[in-house]
Protein 1
Amino acid sequence: MQVQRLFVQHQQVVLYYVLTIVPDLADAQDIVQETFLTITRKAETYTLGTNFPAWACTTARYQALQFQRTRARAAARLDDDVLEMLYSEDASPPDNLEPRTEALKNCLDRLTPKALELIRLRYHLGQLPEDIATTVGWTPNSVRVALTRARQILRVCVERTLHTA
């Protein structure tokens, strides 16, 4: 029961961590739910007083890998070896996820409506540039260029927001 309370207390950190692996919010929430179930089953393996967020995020990483193997579309899927390189065994959530997430939300609000639509189609709905091009009536290359510009604008905005806070 203590592990479940700790999970609820740190659930937002786990969700932010999973979103660094799986950008779709609905998929990330499903992974967090699976993580909760796994942690509940393996509660006896956790040592009270140790770093719970790191333990929970490591479990979430394995759940995300499982998700990638079984449910993610092949086109949007990272290879397992790439994920393993990105998220080492001692991975723990960065301390600055929450401020970065808030900054990103604010910066998304500053995008032009068209750029926001492209970001939503690509990262929220998981569409590939070719699919987006069909939806918006552009060429795939135009979509790629516009997404690159939108990501650059977001990157600069987030960094500026974090440095002025």
Note: The two ends are 38 Å apart (CA to CA).
Protein 2
Amino acid sequence: MKQLLLILSLLFYSTTNLFAQSNHKGKVLETFQVENYTYVKINENSKDVWIAIPKLDVKVDDTIETSEGIIMKDFRSTSLKRTFPEIIFATKATIIESKNGKNATTTNKIPGIFNVSKVIEHSSDLKGKTISFKGKITKFTPNIMNKNWLHLSDPNNEKTDIVVTTNENVNVGDIVTMEGTLETNKDLGAGYYFKVIIEDAKLVK
């Protein structure tokens, strides 16, 4: 655990007390919408669990599945004016069964391949979309919250920089083409904020 916290501090230049978690799935018992998040209480294996997810139009009695996340203890939500003894912040969620019979998808694939500069330039238009992008790996940090974390730049301009999460194994200096979902203004709490991030990226062969 000490090693995990050290790597987190080196990656994000911050310290915290967070713990990696696995995927979660269950029926929604309660839900609240705030500016940046949707809060849901689900029943998972006969246990009630609070999870904060990216904005999603979810209803009570829907069944959702979330990505792995991080636990926050005694988390105070200023928007809801309440404290959660324990809440999980997940980076992605999908409605897999809806009471109105419609399942939700949160990504749409955009054609073409973007370089890192174009990703940053058009990030507001690409929010929530699945994109293909190409860049040079300048930093690789493995096994944080069950994912590998990359920093990518344009090959001829390392001042550009974008953070990518993936399960792929790559090397610093590699120039790769990947596909993933772009999110903006991603706030994981405890000072972990990303103006632009690409999540769950896969190598494009």
Note: The mean pLDDT is 82.
Protein 3
Amino acid sequence: MIRLAGRGVSRGRVAAEAVVSAQPFGFWQGIDPLTGLVIDRRHDAFGQSLAGKVFVFPYGRGSTGTPGVFLEAVRNGCAPAALVNVVSEPIVAICAILADELLGVTIPVVDALAAEVLARIPTGARVTVDGVAGTIIVE
């Protein structure tokens, strides 16, 4: 078991399977909000489902359309269950905060972790993310 300490950005606690990417990610044109599949053909997570998963990626590659796409994925039940970043750009943090405020769905976000630390989390691992404590436990 690996225990990591970061900074809680958005509240909530989730335990789920991890999908890990070494690349920045943009939800706008990066995820299909009807299925949760990564549709950006240039991304290393292309074709993987983020629905109900802990999505680990360095930082967002945002656009102002990101929250709309993210909230549509939440509404359809196919958004990530939690987000873990090296740095959570404001637009990514806003996605989780709006999901909680507008739809009543908590999506914990933890950041302030070095890229080398995130590399210790393998895709498929069971990960618990606590957005209040800012902790991640990898089983």
Note: Strands lie at 2-5, 7-10, 13-20, 54-56, 82-84, 109-111, 126-130, 135-138.
Protein 4
Amino acid sequence: MARQSPHALSPVQTPPVRLLGIDPGLRFTGWGIIEADGNRLRHIGDGVIATDNAESVPLRLKFLHDALTRLMADFQPDEAAVEETYVNRNGAATLKLGYARGVALLAPALIGIPVLEYGAMRVKQSVVGTGAADKNQVQMMVRRLLPGATLKRADAADALAVAICHAHYRASRHAWAAGTQMA
């Protein structure tokens, strides 16, 4: 009988996990929910939270918080991932994006859901294979990886891409942790 190599580790078995991806914005915040079961991903839902430009910034932020809170109550995610903000030339727009991002980070944290952050290049590289991918490439790969995803807007596709990125990095972290515990 052949001996098994000590380096041949069996895959780490973890229960399925529900992940919320968020692409924050003050006007449109994309969201996507997936379930990761090992290396299998399943689309649960996606959409966009739209705020009213005619409202004050504090009321728009409250609306965003309340919508994210309802979303989490409905879908019960185990973890959340938020896309990091990039800085652009318009300081006022960057600041407003930062406000929305703060709400996107805070809402899950307030109810005890772990939140991780990923830069846009890391998300694109994880989903498409290159950090220089354009929005069309990201949407095409999200559709391929998550059959049934509706992708109501590009913001929803970006949020699902953040969730996919988190699923990949999460699996790697768990495998690494299991490997170091066995050593």
Note: Residues 1-10 have pLDDT under 50 and may be disordered.
